[in-house]
Every structure is written in C-alpha cells, then in structure tokens.
Amino acid sequence: MENLNEFLNCYNEKDHSIALNNRNIYVSYSGDYKGNPINHVHNSCELLFIEQGGGEYKIRDQQYHIEKNGVLIIGGTDPHSRRFTQVPCIRYGLTVLPAFLQSLPVINSYMNVYRTHSPEEANKLRGIDDVTFNRMVSIIWQLREETKDNGQGKGDMVYALLLEMTIILNRLLQLEKQDISGMYKTMSDIKNYIDFHYAENLSLEELSRIFYLQPNTISKNFRKTFEKNINSYIHSVRVSNAVRVLEKNDISITELSEVVGYASVNTFLRQFRESLGISPLQYKKQFEQYKEDAGKTRLTWDIREKKKY
Amino acid sequence: MENLNEFLNCYNEKDHSIALNNRNIYVSYSGDYKGNPINHVHNSCELLFIEQGGGEYKIRDQQYHIEKNGVLIIGGTDPHSRRFTQVPCIRYGLTVLPAFLQSLPVINSYMNVYRTHSPEEANKLRGIDDVTFNRMVSIIWQLREETKDNGQGKGDMVYALLLEMTIILNRLLQLEKQDISGMYKTMSDIKNYIDFHYAENLSLEELSRIFYLQPNTISKNFRKTFEKNINSYIHSVRVSNAVRVLEKNDISITELSEVVGYASVNTFLRQFRESLGISPLQYKKQFEQYKEDAGKTRLTWDIREKKKY
Fold this sequence. Notes:
homodimer; Jelly Rolls; 2 domains; 13 helices; 48% helix
C-alpha cells in the first residue's frame, strides 16, 4: 500500500454529486480519515467495496457493519449515514440508477440484488474470499476505464461488466432469479415512471389512469413487489431529488418543494425531516462543511492507475 | 513457467471432439511439441490465444502466423491445418457454435468477429498488449470454471463473459457493429437452419418454400451477408458433421454420406476431398494416429489451477 496520506476522498470529482441522481452508472474510490456523520440520500443504488478500515452504516433504521473484503449495498432513495471506526476507510463505490439496471436484459431479472438487504442477508457480503473480492474490484476498474473513455461498444461493455458483477453478487446473496413478467413488470414500469416523473402529479388516481389499474391494485402490488409503500417511495424519490437540487443551487424552500413535485411546503418539510432527520437548510449547511472537508484531500484514481489491477 | 514437460495436449479431454460440433461453448488448454499437420474442420468457430511458441495455420487457402500474445480466429466450417515452428506451442482454445452466439442478444450484432479474417485484418490480433491479452486469458479461465461447475446463473455468467470477450476482440479488429434487422436477420435464420438441418433437403427451392423468398434472393443475399456461396456453405456444414461421425464411429461411406444429407456418395466424396484434401478413410486413419499421439500427453488445467489467474 502506498503512502496512506495519498488516499483521499474523491467524492469531490466534478460529477459525483450529479451522478448520484442522474448518471446511469458512476464509480468512485475514496478513503476518509474522519467519520463524517452526514445524512445522505440519493436515487442511485450504492455499492461499497471495502478495501481497508471499517465502520458502521445506518440505512433507514438498521445498523450495518463494514470491514475489509466486505460489500455493502444501499438501495436507491434509502437515507443512510455512516461512522468510521477504523480510518482511513478505503473503499470503491459503484452507484447505479435502478431504472437503468431495469432497462438491461438479464440484469432485470436480478433486481433483488440492488436493494438494502436485511442485516442477516447483508452478512453474506462480509468476509468475501480474496479471489471473488478482487474480481469485483477488477470489474470496478474496468468500469472506471469504460465510463471515462469513449471506446467502441462502450455501452455494451458496461452492460457485460455490470451483468458479471450482478451474477457474482447474486451468488453471494443466494437470491432467486426473478420472474420479470406479469405484475412484476407492471410494478417496475410504475416505479420507473415515478423515478422520472417525480415532479408531476403521482396520486394513485393519476397512476391508475396511466397504467389502467385500480388504485388499490397498484398500492397492494407495489408493496408486495418492492416491500415498500408506494407513497413512501414517491416521497423518498422527491426528497432525493430535493437534496441534489439543494446541494447545487441557492433556492428558496417554497420553490424547491415545487420543483420536486410537492403542492404543500409543509408536506415537503415533514418528509425531508423524516428522511434525513434535519431541515433542508441544516442539510445545506452540513453539506457545505462536508464539501470543504472533502476538498482538502486529493483524488486517488491516478495513484492506483499505476498498479494496473 | 512450470516444467514444460507438464504441458501437453488436453484436446483429449473426453468432450473435446463432440464439443467442436455440438457444444455451445468449450474451452481447452494445450501445448504441442510436434506440428501435427492434420487437416481439420468443425462447425464451431475456434479462437486460439497463444501463450508461448509459434507456428503457421492454413485456413481455407490463406496462411496465418501465430505467436505469443496473438489471437487467431478460425470461422466455423472453415477447413484448417497447422504446423508449429516453435514448440511447445502453448495456447488456450475457445470454441463457440455460431448459432449459439447468434442467439445471444447484443453479441448477435458482433458476429463479424467470429469468422476467418483476411490475413491483413488478422494482423490486428497479433502482438496484443499484455493487459488486454491477460484480460482475455482471464475470461477463458472464468469460462472454464463456469462450464465445469453448475453455478447459480451459469448461463447468464457465460453470456456476460462472452460479451466481454466479443467487445474486446471487436475493438482490436476495429469492426463496425452490425445492423441485425431486415435481410441480415433472415440470412442468419437461414444459416442457423442449415446448421441444424444439414441432414435434410436443403435445395434452394426447399429453403425458398420455408423462408418465403425467391431462390435467387436467398442465394444473392447469403453471399452478400456471409461472403460465402450458400451451396458451399451447406457442403462445409455437411463435411464438418461427417468428420465428427467418422471420428466416433465405424460406419460405411454410403451410410455416412446419407447421415449428413447427401443423396449421392460421389458428391459427398468429392466435397470431402475438396474440404480436407483427403478421403474419409484416409482422414479416419490420420485421426487415429493423432489421437494416439495426443493420448501420450497429460492434461494441463490442473497444474495451472494452482496459479489462480
């Protein structure tokens, strides 16, 4: 391992923040010395591959331990915070938009991989053998190359690499392949519709009109398919998007709540606090502080580049 | 490199011969000390990845040089022979049935990879940089694991690995992605039909009846799409299959010619000789000798297994 001081937070790469909500796929490499406990939420599903160090993640209301040779999967729109107990905590990050994964053949049968797992289930991704763990890291490196270059067949290569990663994770988690026809397909379509139309009217009546299904059929089957209440899901998508807008812009709370689809500012404020435990203004302040801390460290990819994984 | 005497021909693995015509995918690892010049033909497309040594291949009427860090692609049903100039010539082999590749989404747009290339084009696969070459070898190793085990999502993993390999090769060859709609699709369907129904009547009139196209439309477009005369293609599929039957069975030439779809023994004999330069009986004799030579060497995968690529 090279000089540890060289390891740093490359979350400040210029695209990182946008990526969390709007990029199909994004890879990062970072190492933190302090366990910044900022609350965090985004549309993308986040996968962390721990190379060194350790800590705790809180996702929704559950605690997860991370350590060397472990992978942690955080479902899209699930609020999470972290605390590092062994620093630096050096890890690769892979974020992928669920709607993008859903659009990919074969991978769309393995979407159960890309959600927050129960702590028991998540244990299957701890203490992974070196061969398997290094293979995943090598896929991350190749994805890094692909997302940075404009190679021939780049989209197809990203697809191949993601499919490989998906099956490795699915084997570790020992999940069943999903039948993607029928009601599952319809519910996925509704979920994707919410992801892209969060700023519009998403009442059950409106969704019912668009998808030709009874409101309570939608509500019942959405919960059955994704183990989430559809209204909570809509709120979480709106809050995730609000967070990204907040990070990038100076905007009034009234305007912000409208931009992400709320008719009532009060509902927006209540939902934001429910997700992140703080108000939008407090979040903005914390984020500025976080960015400043992160900005003090330098990027790491270049150093590792020499290693030729 | 371990003791070279340990490197040997693992073409005598029990499935190798069957694999060449009937397995979707098969991987091998072999090293020959002598340049056995046996003429060879099979349905599968064969990819050779040269690790050490060198030699010459003759494919149809063209000469190809192989050497370290080179890949040679031999199109399905193309007769070929070899002569090693630097022994042992140690190489990984990947054989894939064209009809199988054609059935795989995305890969079916890159079918131009899986044919015999002109010697100029084939030069692009010589002297490949170590990183890229090792990545391909690592894919071969993973394919080996997948085709040997019964892992969860095995078919999907093989697909991911083949897609990755396909795009790497396509980048090296700098080929265009194929539009797989319209006439290309129809011609591929006809080609696959021939691959599976070689024992039946494949006259242009019969194909015309099955595919609702004028005989000369089929004939013209088949040549345009695959750069091969459709009747020559039919002969080459029949001869490839005859060769496999011959290797495995004691069968009369009359019976053999019928089994692979010939009404006339003379046509069969003429086509066989045109493909392989010898008669079926001479081939059988040569093959027995070849098998005996190969049987004296042992398999290599097990030795390499320890290396954990």
